[in-house]
Amino acid sequence: MSDPRVVLLVGATGLVGTRTMLAAGRHPSRRLVALTRREAPIPRGVRMEMMVAEPSGWPQAVAAIAPAAVICALGTTMRKAGSEAAFREVDHDLVLDLGKAARESGVANFVLVSSAGADVLGKSFYLRVKGEVEAALTGLRFRRLDILRPGLLRGPRAGERRPLERLAVLASPLLDLLLHGERRRYRSIDARTVASAALQFACEKAPGRFVHDNDAILRAARRSEGGA
What is the pTM assigned to this prediction? Predict the structure, then answer.
């Protein structure tokens, strides 16, 4: 039996990151290692490793872990960041620094959890930053780069209060029915589905750059859960 594929998860304390840790327990062919800036609990029953390091030490940490793939679920909000500069520092600079560290360590697959509507020319600062970091990671030329652009994420966020987002999630069953055509990509999606898809893409062999909307994420999650 071959050794399990080492997958590095960064952003483990967020909604998608937490669900990725839970989903990894169903995939013995993947050995998940989380890299965090602070200690975080590992879900009960999940066999994985966690390394704590400041971002300045991430290049050394990534080199030591030597993963075959990286799942980046890093992200914050404007409210939590407090300013556009602070938001950009996390969602662009920190993500790109991780990408560079992964590329220098010879990582083959890089999976980025981005957002529906990401666009370097977008009017929204949030979506423009998402688009810019996607473009920057593309320039690093990974053997395979998967960009996930989920719509509104459904799932409990520990310790976070997002009243407007919570209201949107509650209304999502109705709102989703109104989103058709190009707007279909903004439909809500369960964070567990995004996590399963991210784990699936981390092990795909075909080279290239791939962008996945909700429908593609759902298909990948089904493949992941079917092969668990």
Answer: 0.90
